UniProtKB/TrEMBL annotation, chain A:
<keyword id="KW-0597">Phosphoprotein</keyword>
<dbReference type="InterPro" id="IPR001789">
    <property type="entry name" value="Sig_transdc_resp-reg_receiver"/>
</dbReference>
<dbReference type="InterPro" id="IPR011006">
    <property type="entry name" value="CheY-like_superfamily"/>
</dbReference>
<feature type="modified residue" description="4-aspartylphosphate">
    <location>
        <position position="66"/>
    </location>
</feature>
<protein>
    <submittedName>
        <fullName>Response regulator</fullName>
    </submittedName>
</protein>
<dbReference type="InterPro" id="IPR052893">
    <property type="entry name" value="TCS_response_regulator"/>
</dbReference>
<feature type="domain" description="Response regulatory">
    <location>
        <begin position="6"/>
        <end position="133"/>
    </location>
</feature>
<dbReference type="Pfam" id="PF00072">
    <property type="entry name" value="Response_reg"/>
</dbReference>
Automatic annotation (TrEMBL), chain B:
<dbReference type="InterPro" id="IPR036890">
    <property type="entry name" value="HATPase_C_sf"/>
</dbReference>
<feature type="transmembrane region" description="Helical">
    <location>
        <begin position="196"/>
        <end position="219"/>
    </location>
</feature>
<dbReference type="InterPro" id="IPR003661">
    <property type="entry name" value="HisK_dim/P_dom"/>
</dbReference>
<dbReference type="InterPro" id="IPR004358">
    <property type="entry name" value="Sig_transdc_His_kin-like_C"/>
</dbReference>
<keyword id="KW-0472">Membrane</keyword>
<protein>
    <recommendedName>
        <fullName>histidine kinase</fullName>
        <ecNumber>2.7.13.3</ecNumber>
    </recommendedName>
</protein>
<keyword id="KW-0418">Kinase</keyword>
<dbReference type="InterPro" id="IPR050351">
    <property type="entry name" value="BphY/WalK/GraS-like"/>
</dbReference>
<keyword id="KW-0812">Transmembrane</keyword>
Length: 146, 519
């Protein structure tokens, strides 16, 4: 039995969040999207009040992560997700404006699954998100296995 | 400020140094002068002493002469008396010899005392007396020759007691007294001269010693000052090194700060731009939806209003509606093109900061091969512009490969891009070496650059001349920054409508430590 995947969107820019959501919807993905505007709220939700991540045990999550957050860096969140035994299996898509090769390398080293640069060119942006939607529809998000 | 303080603190001001040099020259001159004076004085005094001694000797000689004259007269007298007593003919011969010697002695005396008026007067007094005495001797001789011994005896007795002998004695005594006086005077003079010479030498030597001591003191003092200055200089150097290190660290920090700043700015500027562009595109879509609906509403006949929106898109708007639609599209078009431009600028800044952060790696580069590779990649554009690229002999250098590629491809690209339309282009690359530097020249026969723009073209985001080619005004700024980082310089010489020559001077063997230490 498959559990619906919840998309966690950690993105401080409201406009970006709206554009991402709109394009995901346009690509035909109807999973629930949970937006967070800052790192603190997002980590609180992901790792729970005790920070152990136990609250998410067994939940199927897909995380969209912006690297530039007002209160912490996305890299830090990525590192914590990938170090947490309950969350490390959840795919993380890094969506950011930077196309710095050092930063991309760092993200992949930390275990990010997909890295997407937000292009200013809207056509490309929309395409990238839609392809991400296609990607969502084919990947198998590990569901609650213990 | 700190450096300046240290600088003025070191050692001796020029004024003080000049004064000290003057002192030393003065001392030297004084020493020389003293020596000269002593030498001249000594020579003079020695001469004077010799003269004085000669005078003393002269006096003694005169005295001797007077005594000799008197002796001869006495001899003549005593031998005359003796002969009259004994009648021994040898005594008579002796008398004759003595009388004959009187006149030469007198002449000699006159000769000796000619320079002294007093003595000459005395000689003049002496002479008649002696003449008279000689006359007496002659008369005595006559009597003796005639055998009249009695008359001769009487004459001798008369002569011995007569005033002639007294006159001779008086004159001789006067002469002797005068000579005694002269002797005392001249001896004193001679003594004085010698004392003077001795004291002059003594004083002079003393002065020289004093001057020498003064010199030694001055030299020692300046040596001490120099030692102190050297010590301070050493300290200052150490301080300077520390200061330079500190400043270098500051500069590096500031540079990193700027890099970070540029990076953050360009990155954060991009974020809202994504929104603007995204929602503008959304708006565009929204706009076309709205106008399609307006179109379908105005076109629908009054009887059957069909609200189906999925009408074929070809509904033409009319009149004011068409105008509105066009204005709407135009406005959005401007917004989008501006965003595109802004995005390119931000990307350029981002690339520049990234270039600034990249570490260079010096490797031996076959420049000719590198240029050939670039020429191959631009062959298509060159053919389109009807341009030929000629590559001359180029010196190999040790430098960063990527930086060099960017430098040359930018310049060759520019040369092709800004050729004169309708004129076959000719781009020439030349190279030579000079004093450890490789000099590369890229010449074209293109449109050229107005001399007033020669500086401007190297500024970021600035361009010159006819703006008919796409570009951000980054290429040359970037090239120059790269050349500088590689320890080289870059210049342009160009004339409008004739062509341009860009000259790049790079070190043949670029030292990585100079640059990477700063990174």
């Amino acid at each position: 039995m498959t559990q619906p995947v919840t998309i966690i969107m950690i993105e401080d820019d409201e406009g970006h969040a709206r554009l991402i959501e709109r394009n995901i919807r346009r690509s035909g993905v109807n999973n629930p999207i949970l937006p967070f505007r800052n790192g603190t709220d997002a980590t609180h939700y992901l790792f729970g009040a005790d920070g152990s991540g136990l609250v998410q045990k067994g939940n199927a999550l897909l995380i969209l992560l912006d690297l530039n957050l007002p209160d912490m860096t996305g890299i830090e969140i990525l590192r914590r997700i990938k170090e947490n035994k309950h969350l490390k299996a959840s795919p993380v898509v890094v969506l950011t404006t930077t196309d710095d090769s050092q930063e991309i390398k760092r993200c992949y080293e930390l275990g990010c699954n997909v890295y997407i640069t937000k292009p200013v060119n809207y056509e490309n942006f929309a395409n990238a998100i839609r392809q991400l939607g296609l990607f969502f529809s084919v990947i198998q998000v590990p569901s609650a296995a213990t | 400020m700190e450096i300046l303080k240290v600088g003025t603190g070191i050692g001796v001001t020029p004024d003080l140094r000049r004064r000290r040099a003057l002192w030393q020259i003065l001392l030297f001159a004084a020493g020389l002068l003293v020596l000269t004076v002593i030498s001249a004085g000594s020579v003079y005094l020695v001469n004077k002493a010799r003269d004085d001694n000669a005078s003393v000797i002269h006096t003694i000689e005169v005295e001797n002469q007077v005594h000799a004259l008197l002796l001869e007269i006495r001899r003549a007298e005593s031998s005359a008396s003796g002969f009259l007593l004994t009648r021994v003919p040898e005594i008579w011969t002796d008398h004759q010899a003595a009388v004959a010697a009187i006149v030469p002695h007198l002449d000699r005396l006159a000769e000796l005392t000619r320079d002294n008026p007093v003595q000459a007067e005395n000689v003049n007094k002496l002479r008649p007396a002696i003449e008279a005495r000689r006359d007496q001797f002659a008369r005595e001789m006559n009597f003796i020759q005639q055998g009249d011994f009695a008359s001769a005896t009487v004459l001798v007795r008369e002569a011995a007691t007569g005033n002639t002998t007294g006159a001779i004695r008086d004159a001789a005594d006067a002469m002797l007294r005068e000579e005694q006086r002269l002797f005392a005077l001249r001896s004193a003079n001679a003594n004085n001269s010698q004392t003077l010479a001795a004291s002059l030498t003594g004083v002079g030597s003393g002065l020289v010693v004093v001057l020498a001591l003064l010199s030694i003191w001055l030299v020692r003092r300046s040596a001490a000052i120099r030692d102190e200055a050297e010590a301070r200089l050493r300290d200052a150097n150490l301080n300077l090194e520390a200061t330079v290190d500190e400043r270098t660290a500051d500069l590096r920090e500031a540079n990193n700060e700027i890099q970070r700043f540029a990076y953050i700015v360009s990155h954060d500027l991009r974020s809202p731009l994504v929104n603007i562009m995204g929602f503008t595109s959304e708006l565009e879509e929204l706009g076309s939806d709205i106008f399609r609906r307006i179109g379908s509403l105005t076109h629908v006949p009054a009887d059957g209003p069909s609200l189906a929106t999925n009408e074929p898109a070809g509904i033409a708007l009319e009149g004011p509606d068409k105008q509105l639609s066009q204005d709407f599209s135009e406005a959005l078009g401007f917004i989008k093109s501006s965003i595109g431009k802004m995005d390119r600028l931000i990307s350029a800044i981002l690339n520049l900061t990234r270039e600034g952060r990249r570490e260079f790696e010096p490797v031996r580069i076959d420049t000719g091969e590198l240029i050939e590779a670039i020429v191959t990649t631009v062959a298509h554009q060159a053919a389109e512009a009807e341009a030929v690229i000629r590559v001359g002999e180029l010196p190999d250098i040790v430098s960063d490969r990527l930086a060099l590629e960017q430098i040359f491809s930018n310049l060759i690209d520019n040369a092709i891009k800004y050729l004169k339309t309708g004129v076959p282009g000719e781009i020439v690359l030349r190279g030579r070496t000079k004093l450890g530097y490789a000099i590369f020249e890229i010449s074209d026969n293109g449109r050229g650059i107005d001399p007033k723009d020669h500086q401007r073209i190297f500024d970021l985001f600035r361009r010159a001349g006819l703006q008919d080619k796409p570009g951000q005004g980054i290429g040359l700024a970037h090239v120059r920054a790269l050349v500088r980082r590689l320890g080289g310089t870059m210049s342009v010489s160009s004339e409008l409508n004739v062509g341009s020559t860009f000259t790049i001077t790079l070190p043949i063997k670029w030292n990585v430590s100079k640059r990477n230490a700063e990174q």
